[in-house]
Queue: 4 jobs
Job 1
Amino acid sequence: MSHAFYRKWRPRTFAEVVGQDHVTQTLRNALKHSRIVHAYLFSGPRGTGKTTTARILAKAVNCLGDRVDRPCNECLMCEAVDEGRAIDLIEIDAASHTGVDDIRDLREKINFAPSVARYKFYIIDEVHMLSGSAFNALLKTLEEPPSHAIMVLATTEPHKIPATVLSRCQRFDFRPIPLEDMMARLRNIAVHEGLEVQEGALDLVARQSTGSMRDAESLLDQLSSYGGGEITLAQVQTMLGTVSSQAVKDLVDHLASCDVAAGLGQIGRAIADGADPRQLSKELVEYLRGLLLMKTTTLGPSYLTEEQRTEMARQAKSFTLDRLVSTIKLFNQATTDVRDASRPQLPLELAFVEATLSPEPDMESAATSHSAPGKKPPKRMEGEKTISGQVERRPSRFSQEAEAKPAPASVKEHGGAVTAEGAMAPLKRLQDNWTEILAAIKTSNRHVEAVIRDCPPASVEGDVVTLRARYPFHKEKLEEDRSRKLVEDDISKIMGQSYRIKCILGPSAGRQDPERADEMKSLAEDPVVKAGLELGGEIGGVQ
């Protein structure tokens, strides 16, 4: 049985450790000047070389060779560690040995002298998983260590380790492995394994591994079996469920122009072609991150070609900084939500719709979009207009109708202030507080707030507030027990008395012909359109 690549090509010397020169150089100098300490803490992301470096250090301190740059990897002790038969090298998985009894056992055995080696060497992996009492027991050993013992604590979450333990260790922080270093290592492995790997395929493997050398080597190992000696970019994309860079770029263009139909269509085609929704979301986030770097530093990611840099610079100008940041947050959250979604692509579609509801780009981006060859100017959401370079939202049809109606005879003006008499007084008071009510509802549930925003109060009779819903979907949503109770509670709290709500369809819905109304109702039930309505959008019409 052959070994997996990550085991077969595990570094055996400090010089072979990839991307952690700040750690290996310090340890080599400490060995050279006999300044090895009794306890180390190696922290950092998974797959960055923490346990590997600890094993190399174990070889180095026990190496029997006469070389200045240890380990020699030729003596009996070095061979024993490499082959996993060194009895004085003890590795403990703290994830499965979390109790105080396990650490007490360690405390008892650590005092015995090493059997063969110069030092008894302990590696405690995932040390942050130890219980509080186990840490207390370990602390005693760290305070009074025997001279023949060295301990390395490895963790991916150093913030979970008590300060009393941290203060007694020499700490080294391992970093995610840089892209170029990872590609160089993969290229070297491919040559020695007799694999022909396209440069684009290596680049995608390295990016997919997000700084973890172990993940990159495991993926290359899998691809070597899949590709049969030749690994192409298309093969990597098929195995990972990724999409082409052109598809991601086009999707970002649709985001910039707020073209919902084209964007959702692009997502649908990618999923139909076999793309994994979570992988698509990750690639989109990575691309948008590049735009963010481009916009804030003007340089962008270091791995871009000149052609890519020019294209991304154009796209970056199509977003304001605020909108770009919010869009990245939306798709980053979608990456997590994909796992639990009933339809895997739904979080992506929701994120896209919500991102297009963000404020429009500034004048610089608009001008750039107009001047870009072959590009259509950004599409504004219905109800927006530009005045003197500023984007404003026009009042809804209902608010326009309300403004057009003459004030009732019972409303009188006194010194510029409007007061209400009779039945209009509660309604006027509710309208005056409506903004505050919407803010309170948004704090409790932003989706309900997005729906009720288009359901203005029509009347107040006794303790009943009548809301005028624009579409049947809005009415049905607010009539759900949970939504209704939330709205009633917030209205009652701000108005200072108990109110109940009921919903009616607005006049504009009543004026539609029956066939048109059925079309609107059917469209509002579509999952994607329904999601857009929940996020505060509206149906501009049925074509």
Note: The longest strand covers residues 149-155.
Job 2
Amino acid sequence: MALKVSPNNRYKKGSRCRIPEKGDSLETRVYVLFFLVFLFAASVFIRLYFLQIASHDYYKKLADNQHSILEDIFPQRGEIFLQDAGMLYPVAVNKDAKMAYAVPREMSDPSGVAKTLAPVLSLPADDLTARLSKPNDMYEVLKHRLSDEEVAKLNDLKLEGVHLASEAFRYYPAENLASQILGFVGWKDNGLGGRYGVENYFDSQLTGHPGQLSQDNSNAGFWVPTGDQNIVPAKNGDGLVLTVDHIIQYETEKILKSAIAKFSAQRGTIIVMEPGTGRILAMASYPDFNPNNYQGEDMGSFRNLAVSDPYECGSIFKTITLASAIDAGRVNPDTTFVDTGVVQEAGYSIKNANYKAYGKQTMTQVLDMSINTGAIFAEQQLGNANFLDYAKRFGFGSPTDIELPGESAGNLANLKNFKTDINFFTASFGQGITVTPMQMAAAYNALASGGRLMKPAIVEKVIHPDGTEEEIAPQEVRKVVTEQTANEVGQMLRSVVVNGEGKMADVPGYLVGGKTGTAQVASTDAKGYQDGQNIGSFAGFAPVNDPRFTVLVRIDNPKGVNWAESSAAPTWGELMKFLLNYKNIQPTEKYTQADLERFNNTHDLSKYAAKNEAEQAAQEQKTQ
């Protein structure tokens, strides 16, 4: 029999069972669902509280630790120094800056943070939102090398999950000083690396070796904070102490810039070497650049003219020709020849630069008056094969292997056929072949060093990360000529300054010697030479009887002067006077006050230095 239940009575008398009403199961499910939602919300709240409040310091330390790990993984770049009166002068250092990074898992509103942060850091808001919307991400670099203004704004905003940390970047405290020697650190192969100069040549040594990190990751690829980590620390890069003297480099650059301004020249370069060691005491080229702001500089100014730009050097090569012929025993300083003013060869008439005929002249007078036909005479006595052999022995046609990138070998290709005399004739006075200023400075330095060709050196010492130091010893390449030959040629170069075309290079009280050279500039789009273009050079050393400095000056396309004796020679004399005084080398020759006043009046470049500085300041103001 069916059980009947009264609507007002849910239970039968004496029954222990509840009789469900229609729809009662749905109500139960609603309560259960509500309870589950409440439980989930509570767990989320508790988790957020745990992450953002209770464990905030813990995760902040984890993020900071991630940054610290990066510091352990990436090595510190070695710094670069110049010599400075027995001390070290820093020219490429690591400077601290601030970087911004984020810890996305600390953020409750990544999109809002991104919108606030975008204008402060000048970054796209959409990109920031995507990068910050990674709930498991503990470390996201936002921007390097923040400005003081950006740092101040971030400190004021105190954005959730956004932090600041220190980082190092390359800084050049002397700015333009020795810029072509140093180069700079910039973007290279999708990362930062040395560009140009020493920064490039020694990039791997300066960079050091990165460390390694192995760690436990989750199945999703995320780092497990409580897992194992194995860190192999990075090895910092070596520091370099250059052979360059800070004071000499500064003065050399000042004198070069003044000469460029005085003669409205296109560009120029000066090399100062130390006889006996081959160490570079100064190497200046102009125009130069500021490596702290290389992005805004003309890329042409990055090139180091001293090593990368070969040229037809002109009559300074006559010294090499005469030294070779003397060393081979074919002529001596007093050997004579009769100059008719012209040499006919292969249908060409080769004349002296001033179209003069000097008559009977000695080899010393050939250098004094820079007689082209006299250089040809010496080459003829020597012979083509021997001439080429000596040219190579002096280092021409091959890189000097100076530790700088982009060095050119020059070009002796015109001398490959010994039967073509005309190419050898023009080469005897520095036309038809190309050499670099570095090669020519090294060749003159060989004469100053008793006939020993020294490898040009730009690094004197390496400072390893553990503090130990490694001295770089001078390296002799080979013996080029005998010491007697070198001494005789030194006296001939002294005669050039006293009796010949190098008078403007003389320094009162000292035995200085050198040779002028005015070379035509080869045309780039046709045979022959460019009209109205010339390169003035002067190369020599002092004191001749005990050489302390070898100096080469090159000035491209000076205006208002036709010969190097009026441009490169006085520039060389001004610098040599400074060098001798700077090193307290006492005068050995008599001179009068009138001689000194005449020198100062002729060589005073201070007003041109002021002009150059004013023009540079105006250009910087325009750039800003």
Note: The chain has two domains: 57-171+203-237, 243-294+301-623.
Job 3
Amino acid sequence: MDFNCGALREENVGGDAVLYGWCRYIRDHGGKLFIDLADRYGCTQLVFEGEVGRKAGDIGKEFVIRAEGKVRKREEDTFDKANPTGSIEIFVSAFEILGKSEVPPFELIEEKRKFLANDEMRLKHRYLDLRRQEMVRRVLFRDKLTKEIRSFFWENDFLELETPMLVKDTYETGSRTFLVPSRTMPGKFYSLPQSPQMYKQLCIIAGLDRYFQIARCFRDEDPREDRQPEFMQIDVEIAFKDEAYIEGLIEGMLVRIFRNVLGKEIEGKFAHMDYSYAMENYGSDKPDLRFENRIVDITEDAEKSDYNILRRVVEAKGRVKALCFNAGYGSGVQKMDKNYMLGMIAHAKALGLKGLTWLYVKGGEIASEPQSIADSLGNARSGILKKTGAGEGDIIVVCADTSERLLLEVMGKIRKAMGERIGVYAKEYAMLWVENFPLFDKDEVTGRLKPAHNPFSAPTAESVRFLDSEPEKVISRQYDLVINGVEAGGGSIRINDPETQRRVLEAIGMRKESIDRSFGFLIEALGYGAPPEGGIALGLDRLAAILYGEENIREFILFPKNKRFESPIDESPTPIDGKRLKDDYGISLG
């Protein structure tokens, strides 16, 4: 009888079994050969003796074999209690080698993880990396997560639809797109979608009022940590519903996921926060609320001090702000030392901040290294202590800059880094909706407006009057879902009026001909009875990583790219012969 490598238990003892799998771990005990046979279900110990054992001497690591024999109970002192099959073994009577293997370039056994290859080697041999039980667990976790998501939306009467992969290029907005040349129309190109945004809006205009899709998206952006050029989104769109309904829907989905995938219960109502409040108090539009540590303004106190760096910023009409962390500084359990804080100062300077220093509390008083910094604060010290609420052993980070936006953004990064370093959280998961984003963002170099999220988000009824005269005052009906300081998804109520859509595109500097060329088909569709609608997109890879406790989404993508967005497994992207480009696609490289 056929079994997988994780199925057999003591109740199977005495029976016959046939197993197929990969020879993961081989031990030769002189006349007796032990092989751990593995597949995605688990691992079972095989025992070879006598003539069968002599023939098995040809078996190597990661050979694929078929083995048959009797199931027997292992000696109790040899039980592998960490393995569900660890109390039994197969006494092999016959086997067949189905596939030979070269010696793997790195260990695939979990207890040998310290010998695991570097990331590039893992990605080059991803088909081997995916055999490791830890990677199998991640694949199964993502599979279970995806099934729960689909089941949730099916049960809520959503249609699972598919939007096109070869789409119109709208290069005026968003990140760069990947282009695909048309063979039948030389000189013309498709784009791969960064998001199915416009097409899911068309589905709603078509009357398909409850849409969802596990959508593949493509984004040609500069390589950054935890980014991939292709990724998966949970896309949702619904007609005749407002923000509260959509947020409640996603909360219900996550309650179900936590219960059925993680076996945990969470509150079904998440916290809400305005964008402006988040930036002012946490320096981020995705604050991690597992720890509090708010940013406080100490400009008035700094103005009273003799610390020249801070005074110069204040005199230039800048701001001075502070953060406090319970770091246990100077104690036997301190989380940060002087070298760490000096590294934080260097990091802040690299980000462009004009001033940063750090203080700590000792004997109820503010101290520093060197002490001259604390002394130069003079009478400001009592105000800083009061506003930060700092206690014994706490570290106070003081930052200053003439650009309040830069100041808050850098402090947000410092807050995140130091909060994670300390690692003391009031809760395991902190869910948050951030709302009332500005519709537009201004490029500090060009001064040009650009969409804060996308140009399809509807303005609030209260702020739409500013659209033509003072567009920076326009607030969008945008909402982002933040889990543990990571943006898990974002959405908005969409513009369903063609004139408003044109005005928004004009506000970001697009001319009529550009609007018609890139978005004419959507604006035309909005003129044929577009209902009020809204939606949201959540990164499936990112959600899996957050819930699993993994930092990089790459660990939940079967064949990801490296940090340069190259594919080590097949060495793409690769050059294309110029003659082929010219003959097949009408493209000349000059």
Note: The two ends are 65 Å apart (CA to CA).
Job 4
Amino acid sequence: MTRQLLAGLGTAVLIGIGPSAATAREGVAPFLSDAVVAALAGELSGATAKRTVQELTLHHRQRGSRGFAAAVEAVVERLRAYGLEEVEVLSLAADGEIFYGTQRSRPGWDAEFAELWELELDGGEWVRRRRIASYADRPVTLAQDSTSGAAVAELVDVGEGTTAADYEGKEVRGRFVLAGAQPGPVARLAVAEHGAAGIVSYAPNQRSAWWKEDETLVRWGHLGTFPPPTTFAFMVSLQQARDWQARLAVGEVVRLDGRVEAGQHASSYDIPTAAIRGADPALADQEIVFSCHLDHQLPGANDNASGCATILEVARSLAKLVREGRLPRPRRTIRFIWPAEIEGTIALLTADTRFAERTAAVIHMDMVGGDAETTKAVFHVTRSPKSLPTFVNDVAEELARFVNRQSEDFAGGGSPRFPLADPEGGKEAWLAQVADFSAGSDHQVWAEGSFRVPAIYFNDWPDRYIHTHADSVANIDATKLLRAAFVGAASAYALAQLDSDALPELVRVLRRHGLERTAEAMARADQLRQSSADDAANHLRFQLDYERRIFDSLGRFAEPSPELRRNQAVFLTSLATIAGAPGAERIVTASGGERVYRRRALPKGPLSGFGYSYFEDKLASEEIERPQLLDRQALWGGGSNLAYEALNLVDGERSEARIGADLSAIFGPVPQAEVAEFLRVLESIGLIDSAWVMPDAGVSF
């Protein structure tokens, strides 16, 4: 049975069910020869990747810590054993003062000891009754960035602990507070204002359909990095918190004994990297990069030992296949990196701008191995942001379609050529989904307007065990790791080999996907037309320009022939007719009397990094009111996503009105006044410049 679902009003499209023109012949993958596909499918091992996951989960991989250093050593040791080239660790100082673009470096953090005990009265004296938390046994029970301290004190329930009302009528000074929110925001009131001795948080797991369902989970907790914390916080389960709350409610005294030896220290962002050098002298300096993030709490199996292990497996397999002559050495260089999440990537790309300049595409893996039955995970192939149209999305999407078809045939009792089912894993159909851009990992740094590197993001969502002690290797499926590795390796190899001869097949895929994307845009336009014909027309206008720019993005890799360009122009004109909207030639451009913005050369990087927000810091220091755009919720996204794309759209060519129109096309109607206010704020804090477009004179900054 053939099924294909276009989610016209959603952000995800179920892919890989029906056949395609490029892959109609059974078992033939797009873009690659049978020999290449067979070599990759035969060499890649989900079981090997899962064993690497297990090794990484032994380390509490906090930034700049001994656990992170041990994980770095494990990665480097394997890279050398696998015969990778250019194996090294890039080390960038991180002391809390040095800036890398918009990221203020965060000092490392380590803990030596932490225990929390509940006491009971015995013969008139308080003695230890039960150990509630131990850093040695379960490191996640100590909130990151806790500082040294000790207290023996009563426990007081302060609800969420983030508003003044939570503390009214309660004696907090010198006591432990039991709070439902993360320790960072609680500390500002409980400790700084009310003098609490310490924090015990039962912050539940990230919101999903399974949120709060398992009350035994202990979630990863955080105190702020700046300014350095002056307190410590323990993390407990919702079950434990409920027990204490019931006892406190009937007047029982709960007394705790907590001691912590921990703190921040000057450190560095240590980033392992390795490569498979390209064979073409003219293209070897152009790189296809595999990215992940190595840091996380213990065990952190799916998040993100799975991504780290999977790109290690891709590195092993590609290097071995090239070394043995079973794959031609790629024309472009394929590189692998393991930074700390977001902050490490910002540091890397700003410390040496040539790194981003030579990167043609990124394949980012963050949570790629969760067993769907256990974690409830859905695998996504997430596109680059709409501000960065790129054919790279289509390459990964089409290869994911191929694996979906093969795996579904296999699960249904068929005999596909490449089922990609690991002997130590499951046999279920993969059913990967394509999703529009969403932030939340390092891909957002690569694709940000400072760097503009196309980035495909492989990720699971949801995962009911993310950021908890239960994110263990037992939840990892070797088959899923294998399939993620295959699509990643195949995408990278296809991109590394891409030349003009491959463009006709690729352009056929772009057109087919373009029809699907335009169908989705037409459905959204119908939704918009109910309230505004202009908004509907603007949405379709943007979509047609988006398709044109996707084709133009081929030029970074290979030059389309004149015939291919002519045919594409015909296709785009036909697409405009089908959509009932003006063609790409009628896209609005800046004219006389319009303000145009461009990004300043420095500082590079997104508005917010990890543990530090350049934007919020500037607003506070310069006493600027928070722009309304940050609190705007549009039809298809809002808040920080709106701000991210608004800044990305600043390219030195778009006018203020055009930025607002494009932003409204991406997310749904956004008030132009809020866009204008946000751009003025960006200019006032020194991130962008503006100039007026003069008639017949172009833009003059």
Note: The chain has four domains: 12-103+272-497, 108-265, 500-586, 595-699.
